[in-house]
Write a structure and sequence with these properties.
Length: 181
């Protein structure tokens, strides 16, 4: 009795989207352009070009032939051009700054990781040096062995010196193995 062609109310409808072809936009390329532009705007060359451009504009529109002037005294068109240039320059500069900030963040994270690794390595080496120092306390060094051997030798010499030499009772007897005159 139920018609299967009717949509069910307990399930969402399928959305039908019409594919819209959008132009491909390479964000990385645009970002590089923004950085190049921002870098150029911060140079003396850019300031010199802008100064020459504005001075030529003002001189031509102030002192040039009246029939060839296109922007008379309050220089509204020049103001419009400079405003447009500033309105495009500001977002490009901000984009370049954001990209630089992202690079700086990555660099800081890498530096932080390197610092953590260096710190861990230094702690490990400090523990190793401490364990070597403790181990060296239990190991006989060459100087320690020499000092002990000198002490033993001096003890033996002292012991031999304190013992009485055997008395020569039979002076006529010669000991075995002693050379005879």
């Amino acid at each position: 009795m139920t018609d299967r062609s009717r949509p069910r109310l307990d399930q969402p409808r399928e959305t039908r989207r019409i594919p819209v072809s959008r132009p491909e936009f390479d964000r990385e390329r645009f970002g590089r352009f923004a950085e190049t532009f921002a870098r150029f705007m911060g140079t003396a060359t850019f300031l010199a070009y802008m100064t020459v451009f504005i001075a030529a504009w003002l001189l031509w529109n102030s002192f040039g032939p009246k029939d060839m002037q296109w922007d008379s005294y309050p220089f509204i068109f020049l103001t419009l051009i400079l405003s447009l240039q500033a309105s495009y320059a500001a977002p490009l500069i901000l984009l370049a700054q954001n990209r630089q900030e992202a690079r700086d963040r990555v660099t800081q994270e890498q530096d932080r990781e390197a610092t953590v690794q260096s710190h861990a390595d230094m702690e490990f080496l400090a523990r190793e040096v401490a364990s070597l120092r403790l181990g060296m306390g239990e190991v006989a060094t060459r100087d320690f062995l020499r000092a002990e051997l000198r002490n033993l030798l001096s003890e033996l010499n002292d012991k031999n010196a304190t013992e009485k030499p055997p008395s020569d009772k039979g002076q006529g007897k010669k000991s075995k193995g002693a050379p005879q005159d």
